[in-house]
Amino acid sequence: MRHIISVLIENESGALARVAGLFAARGYNIESLTVAPTEDPTLSRMTLVTYGDERIIEQIIKQLNKLIDVVKLLDLSEGPHIERELMMVKVKAEKGMREELKRLADIFRANIIDVTATSYTIELTGHGHKLDAFLQAVPEETLIEVVRSGPLGISRGAKGLGL
Amino acid sequence: MELSGAEIVVQALIDEGVEYIWGYPGGAVLHIYDALFQQKKIRHILVRHEQAATHAADGYARATGKPGVALVTSGPGATNAVTGIATAYMDSIPMVVLTGQVPTPFIGSDAFQEVDITGITRPCVKHNFLIKRVEDIAETIAKAFYIATTGRPGPVLIDIPKDVTDPNVRIPYEYPRKISMRSYKPVEKGHPKQIRKAVDLMVKAQRPVIYTGGGVILGDASEELRKLVEVTGFPVTHTLMGLGAVPASDKRFLGMLGMHGTYEANMAMHESDLIIAIGARFDDRVTGKLASFCPHAQVIHVDVDPASISKNVKVDVPIVGQVKPVLRDMVKVLKERKTKPDAAALKAWWQRIEGWRAVECLKYPPSDKVIKPQFAIETLYKVTRRRDFYLTSDVGQHQMFAAQFYPFEKPRRWINSGGLGTMGFGLPAAMGVQQAFPKATVACVTGEASIQMCIQELATCSQYKLPLKIILLNNGYMGMVRQWQELFYEGRYSHSYVDALPDFAALAETYGHVGMTIEDPGDLEAAYKEAFGMKDRLVFMNVLVDPEENVYPMIEAGKGHHEMHMSPYLTAERELA
Ligand SMILES: Cc1cc2nc3c(=O)[nH]c(=O)nc-3n(C[C@H](O)[C@H](O)[C@H](O)COP(=O)(O)OP(=O)(O)OC[C@H]3O[C@@H](n4cnc5c(N)ncnc54)[C@H](O)[C@@H]3O)c2cc1C
Ligand SMILES: Cc1ncc(C[n+]2csc(CCOP(=O)(O)OP(=O)(O)O)c2C)c(N)n1
Ligand SMILES: [Mg+2]
User: What are the two backbone dihedrals, phi and then psi, of residue B271, each rounded to the nearest 5 degrees?
Assistant: First the structure.
């Protein structure tokens, strides 16, 4: 089962290495990991996507909690939540293709954020599935570069993950 | 008070109540060594290899319950300490290790004797720190001790760049009285509802077994465990790390369980309908094949580390908390209960257990020609039983024989590396114990292979006049390896013969100790008596034992508790009968 886990962690050097090292050392799967400081600069928030059976996920959560730097943790998959991922796609936009690519971007409610005579860079936010669908739709021969952030997650409702 | 970084390091250790540091100097820690030189409160013990510094600090911690402290230099000093850190980590031993580091501006530049020791040790410490400012030293040290000694204990490493200890930079010093961390809040008491649930199962159980481990020793909860055994009358077995929690002479003690555990302990586990696991972590040496582990049992598990619970074996009633308060509450609830454990069922259960016990699984063939290693341990017990006695061990067959044949009556008296199984642990660990208890008798049982991994420490023992008694069960083989090769590799003894042995007695004497070589079973007791009579001397007893004795009973890796191999001797004897 795929799980998306949010972690509040002390914003200290080595903290990220501890999390990454934990997954490597214990052989846990890690699909994506995003991290940035929060509004409180002493804390970072991590969103990680992992998968495994119930027993493994339970161990992952316990082992993460056991890291001294981890302040709080929430398995978002346990409740209603929202996921968003950012993607930037650089495509060849030669004469004949420009219109079609523009239309495609509009359909997906994406933005074109950089333009040259021969290329577009398209920005798209959404659930991973939507980003996948967009990539499916873009003619393969036009793709130059794809960069994805990995998902961010937040729970639905008024309650927040804080101290 | 204005102090330099180096002085702060030392003063913080003093304020933490540290009595001893085991260490080895080098460039990156010279400022700290200079500060150590100028004080009298802490004694520094100069070892001969940094591995020994960590093992000695570890041995001290295991015997006293207080955190052990080691100090080593950057680079090779730090890497040499890693084995000892990993050893302590696997057995959850509280320890603080200070390593020197190159000056902060040089970090990351492949400077002389630079190594990323926080990176190297990350997977084998409870936590580690790299101090970047002199202002952070005191608080970091206070945090390190707090983390090392609370919750599930473990080693904490502090990496200190040389410029941070600069004697010319002085700042006001104050040691933090209380540490509170938002990210680390270890649990103390167990949840009352869970404890009640556990008691529900206990009073209903027909075939209960209490299985306890290192957690009871680490949590100083032997008294509480004894109460629980008293109140319930349940049989109790210990892991290798749990020996001494309940006196070995107590009838309700079934001996050690697991790979080289007793028949009665393993059979009781296998047939049990309720396992009460306390401060034990269901290690593979204990469970054997997980699929056939305790097939009929429900499981209660008391552990301070939630990650230990349901890691290998699914637990029915988890109780997260310190063993001491949990057992106290458990006994209280049990006493208040109207329903008591089922006496008739328990009686029938004990009858079955006595049947298994009657097999006398530890019996070995007596000999008046060659010293059997089992006999060497039994005789050791005979000679030392009335003493204030600590036994450390190295790793191998001798370790298992000691665990099987030395009945430990008290906690913290049996000191060995279980989780990592580190050869070389025994001698330096014994130094730490002896330092902590100068008047006690401290012995180390070892093998001719293991002892050579830290034998240089005989010099440290000379320098500090540590009157250890070293009992080398010399079988000429890496016996534990040879046993596996005999049993599982058709007797192909690939590189397990320990050739070119020194004359150990003579070697000990060149270090200024007393050496003995003992070959005849008839001489053993007298030799021990003589050796243990030499109160102020280290005596190295090279005991030549049967080269091909094996440790039995044995459960092969990956087999179940009911599939024990008994010694061929016992099997033959039983067939005769
Ligand atoms: C050659 C060799 C052979 C071996 N054979 C055997 C064998 O036959 N049988 C055997 O048992 N072992 C054997 N071992 C040892 C084995 O490898 C493990 O080290 C051992 O079984 C683990 O013991 P434990 O479960 O008590 O755990 P420990 O490593 O002692 O762990 C303690 C547990 O208690 C918890 N804890 C710690 N403090 C507290 C507290 N205050 N309150 C609550 N919980 C706490 C911890 O979180 C942890 O889960 C052998 C080792 C070697 C080297
Ligand atoms: C540092 C280290 N290296 C290798 C091993 C693997 N090993 C386990 S027991 C053993 C043999 C120990 O031989 P000895 O010390 O003579 O003890 P004996 O088994 O003969 O009693 C070895 C090599 C280990 N546990 N530790
Ligand atoms: Mg040997």
Answer: -95, -5
Predicted ipTM?
0.94
| Protein residue whose Cα sits closest to atom 47 of ligand 1 | B305
For B484, residues 6+ apart whose C-beta sits below 8 A from its C-beta are none
User: How far apart (Å, rounded) are the C-alpha atoms in residues B557 and B20?
Assistant: 40
Active site amino acids of B: 50, 112-113, 162, 480
pLDDT digits (tens, 9 = 90+) for B62-114: 999 999 999 999 999 999 999 999 999 999 999 999 999 999 999 999 999 99
Q: Where are the beta strands (DSSP E) in A11-162?
A: 32-37, 43-51, 70-75, 81-92, 111-115, 119-126, 143-148, 152-155
Q: Residues B522-532: pLDDT tens digits?
A: 999 999 999 99
Q: Measuring CA to CA, how many Å separate B491 from each of B312, B482, B510, B561?
A: 33, 8, 37, 25
Q: Is the torsion defined by CA of B305, B306, B309, B310 positive or negative?
A: negative
Interchain CB distance below 8 Å, A62 and B306: yes
Cβ neighbors of B383 (< 8 A, separation 6 or more) are B525, B528, B529, B532
In the block, which residue shows the tokens 């939540």?
A81
And the tokens for A88? 């930037």
**Cα of B546 from ligand 1 centre, angstroms:** 29
Contact B118 A14 (CB under 8 A): yes
How far A70 CA sits from the closest chain B CA (Å)? 6
**pLDDT surpassing 80 at residue B576:** no
Residues A85 and A87: their CA atoms lie apart, in Å, by 7
What does the CA dihedral B101, B105, B107, B113 come to, rounded to 10 degrees?
A: -50
Which pTM does this prediction carry? 0.98
Rounded distance between C-alpha atoms, residue B414 and residue B395, angstroms: 13
